Amino acid sequence: MSDTVMLKRVALVQYGLGQPPKLSTDGIPILRATNITRGKITEPGLLRARLEDLPLDRAPLLKEGEILVVRSGAYTGDSARITAKWAGSAPGYDLRVTPLAINSRYLAYALLGIAAQDQIKLVSSRAAQPHLNAEELGELQVWMPSSDEQRRIADFLDAETSRIDRLLALQTTVLERLDERESAIVDLAIDELIDRVGTTPFRRFIIAMDQGSSPQCDAVPASDDEWGVLKVSCLRPGSFFPDQNKRLPEDAVPDVRNEVREGDVLITRANTPQLVGSTAVVPAVRRKLLLSDKIFRVGLSPLLDAHYVAWIARGTRVRSFSSASSNGASQSMANIRFEEVKEWPIPHIDLPEQKRVVAELDRSRMQTDALRSRITRQLTLLAERRQALITAAVTGQFDVSTASGRGED
C-alpha cells in the first residue's frame, strides 16, 4: 500500500475572501459554506458581487479543480470541488485547496472520506465552536497511491456515486410528492367544508391571547430539569418540537405565566415567509418550557376544537394568508400581527363534525408518515453506502480495477 502524505505537500491551502465585499444583485457568484453540501456546489443562498469590488490580489477567482472546505460552524470540513460551471466564482470565507501534485478528482473524494473527516473533526473541535484553519487542514494525512491509481479511483467513484446520487434524487422526489399529496388532501377537505358552510373569522372563537418574552439565554438546549425558552423552530405546521429551546441561565427568574401546558394552541408570529403562522397543539410535554415573544398562545372558545384549528391552519388558504399579510426587513424573516391572525378564515362546523374531520386527517397523516419514514430510511442507507464506498476507495481497502460497476454511467 502507498504511504500517506500531508495535504500541504501535494496541494496549496489558502484562505478565501474573509469579510464579504459589497454585494450586488448581479456579477460574480460568491461560494460560501451554505453553498457546499457533501461534495456538491448548490445555488440556494448564493451571493454575488461585481468584479471591481472583489480583492482579486488577495483572493483570485476560483479555477476548475480547486476544492472549497468549510472552515467553521456545524458543517466544518464539508467540501466540494469546483466544476466548470463554477469556475470564475469568488471564494467566500472558507478554505480553498489548489491541488498541485495530486489528482484533483481523487483529492476531492479523499477529503469526503471518513478517515479525513475524523481528522478534521479532531482538530476543529478543540474550540467551543468548530473551526478549521489553513495550517490544520494542511497537516491532514491523505493516502497517496500512484497517479494512475488515483485516476482509476476517481473514475470508479464518479460512476458509483453518480448511480447512488440518481437513487437519492428519485427518493427525494418521492418525498416531495408525498408532501404535495398530503397538502392536497388537507386542502380538499377544507375546501369542501368552505363550499358547504363558508368561513367565519378566527376572532369569533378567541377568548384569550398572550405571548412570552425572550430573555438572554444560553446557546444550548435546556435539560429536562432546567428552564428553557422555546425557539420559533419548535413549531412547524401541525407539529411541536419541545427540544427546540434555549436554556435559561441559572440566575434568571422564569416567568411561570409563560410556561406551556398540554393542549395549548401555539402560533409563530415571526419566521420565514413560508413558516410564519405555523400552528400546533402542545402534546403531553415536560414542565419548565417557556413561550418566547415570537410565539402567540391562543385560548379558544368551547365551540372550536384545538386540533381542528391546527389542521385548518395547515391549509393553503391560511398559509397563504399568513405569508401575504406578513412583513419584515428581509425575505428570510417575516412577522405577523395578532390582528391578522384573528382574520384567518375558519369553516365553522359543530364539534362532533370537527372531531370527525380531525380523525380522518390524522389517519391520512399516519399513513403518509409511515411511507415517509420508510423512504427517509432508504435515503439514510444510500448516504451511508455512498460514504462507505468513498472511504474504502480512498484508503485502499479494495482494488477498484476489479470492483463491479467500474466505468458505468
UniProtKB/TrEMBL annotation:
<keyword id="KW-0238">DNA-binding</keyword>
<dbReference type="InterPro" id="IPR052021">
    <property type="entry name" value="Type-I_RS_S_subunit"/>
</dbReference>
<protein>
    <recommendedName>
        <fullName>Type I restriction modification DNA specificity domain-containing protein</fullName>
    </recommendedName>
</protein>
<dbReference type="Pfam" id="PF01420">
    <property type="entry name" value="Methylase_S"/>
</dbReference>
<keyword id="KW-0680">Restriction system</keyword>
<dbReference type="InterPro" id="IPR000055">
    <property type="entry name" value="Restrct_endonuc_typeI_TRD"/>
</dbReference>
<dbReference type="InterPro" id="IPR044946">
    <property type="entry name" value="Restrct_endonuc_typeI_TRD_sf"/>
</dbReference>
<comment type="similarity">
    <text>Belongs to the type-I restriction system S methylase family.</text>
</comment>
<feature type="domain" description="Type I restriction modification DNA specificity">
    <location>
        <begin position="37"/>
        <end position="162"/>
    </location>
</feature>
